[in-house]
Amino acid sequence: xxxxxxxxxxxxxxxxxxxxxxxxxxxxxxxxxxxxxxxxxxxxxxxxxxxxxxxxxxxxxxxxxxxxxxxxxxxxxxxxxxxxxxxxxxxxxxxxxxxxxxxxxxxxxxxxxxxx
Length: 116
Hints:
By secondary structure, the chain is α+β, with helices and mostly antiparallel strands. It contains two helices and six strands. It has a domain at 3-78: Alpha-Beta Plaits.
């Protein structure tokens, strides 16, 4: 069973291969991926490394968390599972609705309805 590790605050110079080589000294690396911006093609400053064993992953986390890479202190910890239902652009599951606060705006009634 492989263990996925989140690596954050990476310098933009880090590549997939350099990320993999940094973690390879702690055990077998299944994959290493630096996340890239679709529009600019530039690194987003974080990535994921998948290691073959949980022991190797824990050793890498302990050794590399807080380490300085090109002047930046990197963050290394176990990756959390992806949140379901994300990426909706800020709208809730119920869709877009007027503000729930009663102390602002014109209320929810059509043209100027509300507090006049």
